[in-house]
Amino acid sequence: MCLRVLRFSSKAVTNEKLSIMDKLEQFIASILETRKVWLLEAKEGFFAMLEDNNGESYIPLWESEDLAKKAAQGDWEGYTVTDMGFSELGHWLKELSADEIDIAVSPEADGEITAIPSYKFRNWLKPYDDHSYKEKDDEEDDDFDYGEGWAQPWS
Fold this sequence. Notes:
Elements: E1 4-7, H1 15-34, E2 36-43, E3 46-47, E4 50-51, E5 57-61, H2 65-71, E6 80-85, H3 86-98, E7 101-105, E8 112-116, H4 118-125
Parallel strand pairs: 1-8, 5-7
Antiparallel strand pairs: 2-3, 2-6, 4-5, 7-8
Helix pairs in contact: 3-4
């Protein structure tokens, strides 16, 4: 699918920008009400992604389960619709920003996406983060028996 990327920016106001702003306002109003976004998950921890002709990557987010279900066809058929709360999303957006992966707000079936940089979306989301998400500590799942003496100083 060929993507038509509409980028959010704070520069000049055009008719196209107004439609982008309308879409973003609708998206934001919906997610503020539910305090979550919807994604398509291929398998645990692996989510649907989009890439434009310039090699830029996007994670698509939807404001409702129904919209995400409608998108789960074609290349994404068989993906599971899953939700993510603001707290977890805030942590994840930090990683996406570091990986230079942006957000596609409710992508259209025709390939048109409204893109917003993940760091901007994260900054916007910060005041609504309830800090309920805690990253899993890898050591908690460490059931390997190291045996005696494994932590002894080198001689």
